[in-house]
Amino acid sequence: MDVLMPQLGETVAEGKITKWFKSAGEPVKPGDNLFEIETDKVSMEVPSTTTGILSEIRVSAGDIAPVGAVVAVIADGSGATTSPPAAAKPAAAPAPHVAPPLPAAPPVAHASQATLPIKLDPFFEVRTPPHNFGPARLSGGITVTPLARRLAAENGIDLGRLRGSGPHGRIVARDIAEAPRPASAPAGAPAGPSSGEIKALFAPDSYDEVPLDGMRRTIAARLTQAAAVPTFYLMADVAIDRLIALREEANAAVPKDKDGNPAFKLSVNDFVIRALALALQRVPAANAVWAGDRILRFKHSDIGIAVALDGGLITPVLREAETRSLSAISAAMKDLVARARDKKLKPADYQGGASAISNLGMHGVREFTAIINPPHATILAVGAARRQAVEKDDGGVAFVSMMSVTLSCDHRVLDGALGAELLAAIKNLIEMPVSMLV
Does residue 168 have an active-site annotation? Predict the structure, then answer.
C-alpha cells in the first residue's frame, strides 16, 4: 500500500517530514505512528492504517514532499504490497485525462500577464475532511477542487488548459495561482522585480540568502491579499488604572498550590480579549465578515490572537470568548500559545473568527496599526501602558495610566460610525473593568 503525504487543508500544498518513527523493514499495525510532518502552521503524527511491513521509505526525514506524493510503501508479510479488503475497495474510476503540455509562457511584459496571486482565505477555502464539498469532475475526467474552480472563475482561467498537480492529476489552487493571466482578464497589481533583479542592485558578497519556508510564504501571500482590503483606522487612548488595580487584586487572591505557585495569573491582554468579545456582542453588526456577495454576522465572539513564532506568526482563535471568564480566557490562551509555538495547532484552532488582537505593548511599542487578517473584518492593535498627565475636573493635574489602541476596520463591513461604536464599547469596558465580571 502506498503511504501518501496527507492534505491538512486546501491551502496546504506540501509538508516536511521531520521524523520517521519506523524504519524500513519494521512491522506496522493500524494506529502505529509512521512519521511526523510539519507544514507552515502545524506539526502532526501520521499513523498507519494497515498491518504489514514498512518495505520502503521514499521521502527521508528533513525532506519536503507535495500533498499526495508517495512517501513510503507498506507490504504484507509475504512481501507484496497490501491492498484494502475487497468489500472496502472503491469502484474503479475512469483514468484521468491529462491535458497536453502548455506552450512555454512568454516573459512577463506587463501587468495583464502577471502570475495570479493565491487568494488564501481560511474561512472559505480551508476545508478539512470529512466534508461534503468534494472535487468536481470536468469533461474528459479531469477533477478540480471547489477552491480551484472558484479562483479560476474569478480570474478568467480556462480549466481545460491546465495540468493538475494534485493527487491523481487533480487541479488545485496552486495550479490556478501559477497559471498565466489571460490578456482579457482584469489587470492586478504590477509584477514586482524578480529576485535576480533585486540581487543585481547589491554586491554579491554583501548579503546572505535566506530561503523562504512555508510559514513565511503563507504570511507573504496573506498580507498581499490583505492589502486589497479597504481599511480605515480608529484610535483611542484608554485609562487603565482601574484595570491594573483589579488585576493586581485578582491575582493576589488566586489560590496557590503547595509550592506557592498560583493556579493562574491574569494579564492585561486577558482583559482586552474579554473586552473585545463583549463589545462585539454589544455591537453585533460589527461581529461580521465580508463573504464576497454578502456579509456574515456571527452569534458568538471568536477572537484571533496574534502569536509571535520564530520566523513568523500565527493567529489561533479563541472560540466563544464572550462566554468565558477571565480565568478561563487566561487558561485557554496559555494552552493556545504553547501549542502554537510547538506547532501543534490543528486547522480548527486557527480558522475562522471575525476579529483579532495584536498586542505589542510588552515590547514597548506605544501605538501602531495592525493589518487585518482576512476574513476578519477588524483587528485591535494594543500599545504599551504609559503614565500621562491629564487635567482634572477641578482644573488640577493628575497622572494616570493610559494605553493607546487602534481599531483597523474593513470598510466593506463597517462604516465609520459603526467602527466608532465598537471602539467606544471596547474603551468603556476596559475603563470600567468590573463590568466584565458580570
Answer: no
